Structure to design on (218 residues):
């Protein structure tokens, strides 16, 4: 199965012979590709809504992978038992919801080797969750679909000695940083219309963020 670059970037972080839960599986594309490419030995494709699961079921039936991919309806990791899987993939949902899902299943989170996350927003909230829970960013990458650049974060208990990530070497990095600068500059422009806003700590914080991002481009 041909994945878009976002799902492919997620797949690239999954170790060989893994047992994976794909939370919010949608059409089951990632789950199918993980099995078809022999990256994963077994995948639980989970979603809290019946519609996406039925779509996934049809796709899984079509490629006859029912013995390798198990469909489960449930909220987040609530239907996952400790020891069933060693890799968690959560993609295509907001960062705050990702944190809620992980917080709601601490024993499952502690039991796995890797957590691969692709938040649609609130990425800094996810990064703070990683720090708070004494986990480490092992690697990260960028992927672009329909002119939107996504961040993919690979988390583990192991401390990574390498400071260079796939994201650092990505051809998308310059565009990604410039997009962030543009969005922050728009916020500054709006805040500049209010003398009170210009005196706020948030205004100074955003200015510093822009300065730091521009430094990364040099």
């Amino acid at each position: 199965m041909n994945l878009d670059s976002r799902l492919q970037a997620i797949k690239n972080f999954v170790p060989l012979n893994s047992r994976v839960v794909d939370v919010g599986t949608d059409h089951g594309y990632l789950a199918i590709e993980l099995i078809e490419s022999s990256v994963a030995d077994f995948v639980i494709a989970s979603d809290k809504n019946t519609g996406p699961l039925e779509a996934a079921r049809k796709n899984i039936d079509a490629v006859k992978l029912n013995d390798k991919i198990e469909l489960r309806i449930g909220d987040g990791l609530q239907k996952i038992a400790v020891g069933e899987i060693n890799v968690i993939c959560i993609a295509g949902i907001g960062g705050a919801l990702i944190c809620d899902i992980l917080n709601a299943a601490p024993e499952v989170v502690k039991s796995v080797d890797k957590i691969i996350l692709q938040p649609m927003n609130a990425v800094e909230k996810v990064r703070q969750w990683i720090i708070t829970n004494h986990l480490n960013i092992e690697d990260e990458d960028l992927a672009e679909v329909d002119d939107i650049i996504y961040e993919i974060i690979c988390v583990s208990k192991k401390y990574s000695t390498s400071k260079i990530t796939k994201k650092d070497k990505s051809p998308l990095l310059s565009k990604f940083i410039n997009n962030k600068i543009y969005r922050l500059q728009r916020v500054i422009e709006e805040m500049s219309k209010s003398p009170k806003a210009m005196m706020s700590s948030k205004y100074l914080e955003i200015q510093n963020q822009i300065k730091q991002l521009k430094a990364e481009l040099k």
